[in-house]
Amino acid sequence: xxxxxxxxxxxxxxxxxxxxxxxxxxxxxxxPGSLGRLEELxxxxxxxxxxxxxxxxxxxxxxxxxxxGVVAEGVSxxxxxxxxxxxxxxxxxxxxxxxxxxxxGADLVVVDIGVARPVDIPGVLSLKVxxxxxxxxxxxxxxxxxxxxxxEVGIRVALDTINGGCGLLATGDMGIGNTTPSSAILxxxxxxxxxxxxxxxxxxxxxVLERKVWAVKEAVRINRPxxxxxxxxxAKVGGLEIAGLAGVILGSASRRVPxxxxxxxxxxxxxxxxxxxxxxxxxxxxxxLSGEKGHRYxxxxxxxxxxxxxxxxxxxxxxxxxxxxxxxxxxxxMREMASFDQxxxxxxxxxxxxx
Amino acid sequence: xxxxxxxxxxxxxxxxxxxxxxxxxxxxxxxPGSLGRLEELxxxxxxxxxxxxxxxxxxxxxxxxxxxGVVAEGVSxxxxxxxxxxxxxxxxxxxxxxxxxxxxGADLVVVDIGVARPVDIPGVLSLKVxxxxxxxxxxxxxxxxxxxxxxEVGIRVALDTINGGCGLLATGDMGIGNTTPSSAILxxxxxxxxxxxxxxxxxxxxxVLERKVWAVKEAVRINRPxxxxxxxxxAKVGGLEIAGLAGVILGSASRRVPxxxxxxxxxxxxxxxxxxxxxxxxxxxxxxLSGEKGHRYxxxxxxxxxxxxxxxxxxxxxxxxxxxxxxxxxxxxMREMASFDQxxxxxxxxxxxxx
Lengths: 355, 355
What we know:
2 copies of one chain form a homodimer.
Chain A: H1 2-9, H2 15-27, H3 37-49, E1 59-66, H4 82-92, H5 96-104, E2 106-114, E3 124-126, H6 144-163, E4 168-174, H7 179-190, H8 194-197, H9 206-223, H10 230-237, H11 240-254, E5 259-261, H12 264-276, E6 284-286, H13 295-302, H14 318-336, H15 340-343
Parallel strand pairs in A: 1-2, 1-4, 2-3, 4-5, 5-6
Helix pairs in contact in A: 1-11, 2-3, 3-14, 5-14, 6-10, 6-11, 7-9, 7-10, 7-12, 10-12, 11-12, 12-13
């Protein structure tokens, strides 16, 4: 119900606001286009928010944590309990995302959507759908009904965060083993061969990488996810945190709030969100190009170009919060720069310009 | 004298601090290397500052403004008076760099080092070496003595800014026509053909571009700058603000303070600084890849990889101050994240890792 309602609310960008935003951008004291992607971003934000001068303000990164049955196949170098152990590091302020969110002035919302043991940690939202997924190399990750519940958890957290006053969201993930289902989603939805879709994750060796490729192939072969049905794909070969983050993206788009996506896992979530509702894409802001091999295929599929090239591959939302500064910069340029007229600066000579 | 003293003070990075920094970085709760270039940057900063935990703190962007005789050849789409007109926009808080420096928490230091008319604007430092350069398509930009004075102006401003409490500098430029001398510097020092070294600047059309290529060729042919002598190159085919910014880089390196360079003009200044003292390179932090055609050759020559890919080509230091957030992020990661031991998180299984 909530999922359907949310998807129905996702409309197109405001063309009128984008037109006036583009006009204002070209009037500012700089050669037209010289602020490059900051200009495009400001115009996109105007279209999302439906106003010429986009606002920045309170922001949050929503970090969804879940476990993965496929770790039984030995696809990760980290023990499964690390998913649980990291929760206290997130809330304690000492994990990578805690540090970078604090710097970005972003609230960190940590959600247990599918950790494989009971979680009772102050500051962690308990919205568990089930204790970890099934092993996708031998069967589905979860039922369709569970996938819908996970999507709706994400939607609800996004809406609550927006209702709490945030106007910019970011996605982050924690889940040992979650590059494997993300590769399976990439293989299913973009038709990328498992060998290309699968990378080294936490930097596993060739033996483990071979095992991952095998698991991705098996996941697709056995479960036969329907590429025309995003819910089917995330239910059969995905993960609980991935479905949750897809919900965050849909919820954010339904409220006309921009959402910055992190790397490979968030990219898989964005693919699911766009498979469910293609128009969600317009509300997504890419952040970095991950060091994880398949990420560039994901961004190509989503027709998004990364802003940062930092070879990061940590997840947690670390790349997304770093890019929040770029989003704020785009808003500020539009709001705070003067026009040629206002500043008394001579305009460029049109006959010398490349059209 | 000041130039020689400064160059002599530029020493190598602190290997011991870099070693302990690398060790600490690998102990933090993340797969080794997973924060990519943030990790490299943190280690570089440790080597620059000579301490395991690099500090971030007050920061400033130094913007040098100067005019160019070569505009007489019709190489720019902007009238020359714009160099002067923009000064009030910088100090008035309404130019691109004003907005982005404010956001980054950076002081904006505006210096008249060579504007082609008297300047008396509160907030602009008057350190003019001469009123604009000569036309490099027909003769030298300035004398060798003037080039040394311009370099020393940059050194002095950098040292004053550092003495005032800043621990991180950035370079910015203003000077109508200054992509032409920057291309001539690139052609001279890296041996890049004028056609490849010269781009559209403020997005000039084919006719003006041809004129620029011609001017770059003439500048090199007539002046015969010595690629083994950075001072000779900047005197003959450079600019006053370019020499000033090269001085800022040398001054910063001499005090073991990292300096973030902006795009094409700052890149030319960095080439000059490194031609004068190769070791200055270790103190430079690249920011963005400019939309200006020759910039990638500059960064290749300097063996620097850009952090941001935003197609910006405004100058003023706009890309450099955006990257200051990345520098702060690198410091904070090193200072504020916990180690596996501290956080009680299980380490990765070594037998599964790629070495």
